[in-house]
Structure formats: structure tokens, C-alpha cells
Sequence to fold (396 residues):
Amino acid sequence: MKVFNKPFTQQEAIPEEGISAALNVMRSGRLHRYNTLPDEKSETDLLEIEFAEYQGVPYCLACSSGGYALHVAMRAAGVQSGDKVLCNAFTLAPVPGSIHNSGAVPVFVDVADDYSIDLEDLESKAASSGAKFFMLSHMRGHLADMDRIMAICERYHLFLIEDCAHTMGASWNGKKSGTFGDIACFSAQTYKHVNSGEGGFLTTRHSDVMARAIMYSGSYMLYERHFAAPPKEAFEQIRFDTPNYSGRMDNLRAAILRPQIANLDAQCERWSCRYRVIEAILTRCADILLPERPAAEAFVGSSIQFSLPSFAAPQMLDVVKRCGERGVVLKWFGDAEPKDYTSRYDSWRYLEDMPKLPKTEQILASLLDMRIPLTFSEEDCALIAEIIVEVIGECE
Ligand SMILES: *Cc1c(COP(=O)(O)O)cnc(C)c1O
Fold:
């Protein structure tokens, strides 16, 4: 019997270059982003400049986590207490959490058969809710048709915040994910595409938005020490009226991240090769539904999702259990009892007036997810996919 024996939560080591840069930061003792020598740019400053360049946007703020970036994005967008914010019903807990943290109210939009956001439901809820803000989560790296998304945003005058936690390095029709909306947020948490343990980015092309985001992030009156940022005039009107919600990036983590940003495209390519190996084997199994990915979508295969539409709940549990016994860790989004990372709208019970979304529930009921860490070789990936196909055959 085939078994696999590597951990699904093991990421690669930090590049040596990042380790030695981090040691230099520690030797200098200057870990705080504003603790610089005259004319020195800190590691955090350089990271922001480099990520802005990578994205092809003028402004970038590095901060303490992806969820923090989402919260500051809400605030910098001007969301007020009680405002409605459209967002995916299928996403990760920091998305509704950041909306709640700003006093706003999420309006959940269904997931579609291809695991991206359902555009018909989006359109209808944009019309019926009167929401002026839209937090679009490119959940598990699936990009919705961005041309249609932008058309809907224009029609309903929606301020668009992209949650790019799983699409750092991805693009739609050659345009980078995170450059469509008004603001984009990224995560540098261990299981995303760059790893500093915790960390996040907020990017935008709007100078007023970035000025507010920098103030919120805890810049005190040191905002002139930001370089991927608007000139000081942009801060003059707002600097006494914008609260400090301290959540800065530090130089140690920035040092670890800079070589990872420089190597991001090569890493994305390695992820996609692994994804293709797994996909090719899973496609051979008639029970497995793998939605075809649009030609316009250049995605990062850091995880894979597939459905078993003809399987009932006990069979889904059986598949997860048997795969687990053979070392293959799958997550089932249909589980009534949400485990580890929560991604279902109905597990966020602190929210009032929870809607019922039968379509989302139906899709999640047969949806499985698997991480693809880069510590797995392509041979590992082939073995994993073969085990999944065998187990599904046993559970038919
Ligand atoms: C990881 C993640 C975030 C941000 O998470 P942090 O852990 O706060 O960096 C946001 N959205 C999604 C979909 C995520 O997976």
C-alpha cells in the first residue's frame, strides 16, 4: 500500500541571503523600521520599494499581518460603522474579521462552481444591499473573471479591496492580481507565498488612501520616512485626525522577506509545476471534478481544490480519514464542525443576521483542499495524487 510521509505544513528554509541580512539587522540593534542612521533606508523601506516595483504600483505599506492590512484597508477606504461590505462567503476568517473590526457589516456572496466568487450573486447583492465597498478574496488562488468584476464595480460604484493572500504572483490576462482594485492586501504568513512567520502588505495607487494607511499603521509623525509613499503634503490634512493602530513591519522580518520577493516568480513557477503533476493524475478519476481554469488566469499552484460531487457527507469523511491514514492531509470544507483554519461563513457566529446560502453550502459539501508545500518534489506530488485516486476508488 502506498503511503506518504512528509509533513504538509513544512515550508522551505529562509534563503541564506535573508538569514544573513537578518543577522546583520540583529547585530545592528536597529530593528524598528524608523530606527535608521541619517540617509539610511531600513530593510522595511527597501522591502516596500521592492514590492511596489514588483506589483508595478506607486505605493506600498508593509505591516504586521495580512489580516491587519485588510483592517487598515477598510479604515483607509473610509468605511464607517454600520456600512455594508460585500465579501466572499467562502474565504478565510481574517476577511469577515477585518470587516467586523472596522464596525462594518459583511454581505456574503455565494461561491461559484469554479470556487471563485459567484458573479450573478455579486451583481444581485450589489444592487440589493446598496453596499459601496467590496472585499474580494481570491480564495485559494482562484481568480474570478476580473473583467466582469471590474464592470460590476463600475456599475455599482464599488470601492474594491482585493485580498491577495493566495494570489501573490498571480495574474489575469497578464495584469497582476492586486492591481485591479483600489487597494490590495497580501500576507507573508508562513503558509502563503512568502514567509516571515507573520507579515502583510497593503498596496494602492491612491495617494490619499496610502497616506491614511500609513498613519493608521503607526507612523506617528515619521511618515516622511516612507519611500513607496506619497509626498508629505498628502499627510498634512489628515495627520491629526487619523488614529494610530500600531501594526508596523519590523526590519528583521523585512530582511527575511526581501530575497523572497526577488525570487517570487521562480517559486510560483515551481508551485505550478507541482500543481500540474497532481492535476494530471486526479483528472483520470471519474469521481473527481476539477474545474477547468480559465486561460486568462495565471495562478499560483500553492494548493489544489477539487470536488467529489457524487459523494455524501459520510463518504467525504471517509476519504479524508483514509487519506490521512496514508499520510495525505486533505481539508474538507463541508465539515459541520469547522476544524483548524475556518473558511465557512456559518462558522462566524459573532455576526448578526446570518444569511442562509444554500448554493455555497452545496458546493462546500463536496469540496476538498490540499496544500502543496515546495518541500514536496514532483515525484512526491505524483505519489500523493495516486494515493488520493486509490482512496476515492475504495470509498465509491
Ligand atoms: C492568510 C489569509 C489572510 C491573511 O491572514 P494573516 O494570517 O492575517 O496574514 C487573508 N485572507 C485569506 C484568504 C488568507 O488565507
